[in-house]
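Lab notes, practical 5.
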Amino acid sequence: MDRKKELKQQYKLMKPQMGIFIIRSKANNKCYIQATQDLRGVMNGALARLGGGFHPNRELQKEWNEFGANSFTLEILETLEYDKDEAKNDYTEELAVLQMLWEEKLVKENMEFYKKRL
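Output from the prediction step:
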């Protein structure tokens, strides 16, 4: 039982990589970006949902089904470092600002975004 408690404690102390990622279509000039406090987990979840046919972005899902997984790239655009203040654990605001900056940058590069709802 002690080992189990120790593993739980280690898990709580882990700090997953946070930042923003992009799913970009090779077939057209469209992309989907998302900021998150757990990059790897959310990226893997997005791929699993797309593969299973139930991603919340219906337009992205439709094109994923139509063009196939090989027509898309998935990459991390930027990571966000943890604050030196160990007590801080909510980075929602910083991630929202980071996403807005990337959206502006991508618009300047003539990228289109998959619509939020269809």
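Observations recorded by the TA: The chain has a mean pLDDT of 92. The first strand starts at residue 18 and ends at 25.
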